[in-house]
């Protein structure tokens, strides 16, 4: 298997796909008309390619990897961590909206003569 610094070709392929997606999103963000929404299509295409490459690897397992013991609670743990991360982001957004962006009313000062 060809690797560069221990990183396989698939990771470089995914990095290239996402960099190209980012470039097209920036390029089409200033366009007029229906083509301006093409960035969403490129993101969806990149997500589909990422999921496909993630779940259908091409490489064969080596002798050591065939007998690897996997963590049976990995999916549950990652689901809980992802949920906590999403809730932390939602809480941060709500804090910004309700605390930082709270309107400041002007106070009328007394006239000085």
UniProtKB/TrEMBL annotation:
The organism's place on the tree of life at top rank: Eukaryota
Record membrane topology: Multi-pass membrane protein
Keywords on record: Cell projection, Membrane, Transmembrane, Transmembrane helix
Keyword flag Transmembrane helix: yes
Function: May be involved in ciliary biogenesis or function.
PANTHER family from the UniProt entry: TRANSMEMBRANE PROTEIN 218
Family classification: Belongs to the TMEM218 family.
UniProt-recorded name of the protein: Transmembrane protein 218
Organism phylogeny: Eukaryota, Metazoa, Spiralia, Lophotrochozoa, Annelida
């Amino acid at each position: 298997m060809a690797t560069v610094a221990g990183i396989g070709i698939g990771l470089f392929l995914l990095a290239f796909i996402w960099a190209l997606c980012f470039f097209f999103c920036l390029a089409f963000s200033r366009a007029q008309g229906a083509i301006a929404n093409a960035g969403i299509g490129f993101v969806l295409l990149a997500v589909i390619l990422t999921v496909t490459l993630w779940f259908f690897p091409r490489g064969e397992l080596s002798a050591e990897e065939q007998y690897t013991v996997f963590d049976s609670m990995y999916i549950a743990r990652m689901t809980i961590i992802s949920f906590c991360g999403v809730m932390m982001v939602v809480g941060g957004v709500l804090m910004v909206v309700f605390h930082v962006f709270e309107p400041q009313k002007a106070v009328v000062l007394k006239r000085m003569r």
